Amino acid sequence: MLKRLLALIKKDFLVESSYKFAFLSNILGVFVSVLSYFFIDKLFGQKMVSHLEEFGVNYFSYVLLSMAFFSYIGVGLGSFAGRIQSEQSQGTLEAILLTPTGISTILFSMALWNLLFATIDMGIYVILAVFLFKIDFVNINILSTLVILLLTITSFSGLGILSASFVITFKRGTPLDWVISNVEGLISGVYFPITVLPGWLQFMAKFFPITYAIRAVELAVYRGYSLFQLRKEIAFLFLFSLLLLPLSLAVFKYALRRARMDGSLTQY
Amino acid sequence: MPTAAENSDRSRYILEVNGITKDFIAPLSFAQLAEFDFKHRTPTRALEDVSFSLERGKIMGILGPNGAGKTTLLKIISTLILPDKGSVSVNGYRREDKIKSSIGLVIEEERSFYWQLTGKQNLEFFAALYGLDSKTAKDRIDELFGLFEIDYADKRFGKYSTGMKRRFALMRGLIHNPQLLLLDEPTKSLDYATALELRNFIKEKLVRREGKTALFTTHNMNEASDVCDLFIILHKGRIRAMGTQDQLRHQIGERSASMDEIFVKLTRAV
Question: 0.95 exceeded by the pTM?
């Protein structure tokens, strides 16, 4: 399995590195968005102070961390569907599925590659934060941050695989991706703490795993919260992972079988 | 426990296809969706009760017009499409992973390669997915480059000519040294000289010298007549006839009929 996993990752690296401008524009994109929030903070930052007391930071520090984390989730795990769609439209999915490599190995390699790529993004955010904007990460609880990161990855892998099942079955239009990138951005505390929202939206936010992930990572990084202090968030993320991961794998296998029944595996 | 006769069949036949039937159901139309009519979906029969066996070391041609079910049959054999009825066994195996390891499907779709990677990198990637370690893969790729007389393997795949892309498709099909090759219109859209060269290569080098067995689809009757030992005439999803060219001639009662004439006679009445 390791041999096949490494081959899939090497292939992704070779393909991605052939698009050099895309990589540079990604770095530039991160820089521009960080700069935008820096100026938004200058304009409105003071109005957020009461909502940010719990986290002990200003608006810019809050949003920079949540953006880095959200992009990690979006790029890293929300893109299973994109990868499947790309292999499907390139015509390579059929050739891969002809080999005896198991579907779980293929999915796992996609997750690993996306994580590697997203980690580069995260690194850019951190470098900008520390060296350009002098944000202080001195209180960080590394163990809590890593545990939250791991649980976020597993719960979002589940959502990502569900989304890929939509692509296999319906070819286009993955409602889950839309929810992840739009609704979650609005109500789960990525761009502002959810206490800014009216009560009914705060209630809705409780049903999205990212709400717990963002809150937990802000508290672990800026306030140094321990695993015990974050037990509620950890429990929710663990529950989401426990439910979503096996469910999504079963749904994906079903979608694949259905596509093989109706001969639509390579249609896009 | 298999009997002695079954074991003997197993060693004689590399491929056994038993009673394959496949229907495709069209997606719902807008009118059906608007009326919530989810029940009346007419299936299109792609294959009906298709059964045959293929002896080791032979080349079998599946001949039929467009839409006859040729590609569907190859995809069912290679496990990409599941049949509604019937079964396939390759080398006596019915398990998907065993079948995948025993066959090499050569699809005419050029896009099934990564165009940003070189020809060699593509082969290395697929070799790893077939479970070859890097030393075995390197040796096998060098061997195939020798066999196919390739001396510029480090060019991006997208830059190769159509003929060269087809060679790489064949090399990918052979990378794990399968015993059975499934070739889906391997000479489609090639010029006459390249098509002839590729046909001779399949017949002389792969089958006669390397001892492979090949099953290939075509609607070019002259090509089939040139290459194949055995023929299946597939029309509207059903096998109309099968056997050697002489057996098919005998069936239509014309001792000197060409494959074109045989094909027309056998399918005209349908």
Answer: no
Give B226-243 pLDDT, tens digit per residue.
899 999 999 999 999 999
Measured between beta carbons, the chain A residues lying within 8 angstroms of B99 are none
CA angle B131, B20, B216 (to 5 degrees): 60
Write out chain B residues lying below 8 Å of A6, CB-based.
128
B97 interfacial to chain A (CB closer than 8 Å): yes
Name the residue among B81, B116, B133 with its Cβ closest to that of A18: B116
ipTM confidence score:
0.84
Indicate whether B240 belongs to any domain: yes
Rounded to whole angstroms, how far apart are CA atoms A175 and A236? Answer: 23
B91 contacts chain A (CB < 8 A): no
Structure tokens at A27: 């770095």
Which stretches of chain A sit within 8 Å of chain B by CB? 3-4, 6-8, 10-11, 14-15, 18-19, 90-92, 94-101, 257, 260-263, 265
Those residues with Cβ within 8 angstroms of residue B66's Cβ, 6 or more apart along the chain or in another chain: B219
Q: Is B127 within the bounds of a domain?
A: yes
Q: Which two tokens stand for residue B200?
A: 């001779």
Residue B256 lies in a domain: yes
pLDDT per residue over A184-234, tens digit each? 778 888 888 888 888 998 898 888 888 899 999 999 999 999 999 999 999
- Contacting residues of B for A3, CB less than 8 Å apart: 128, 131, 133
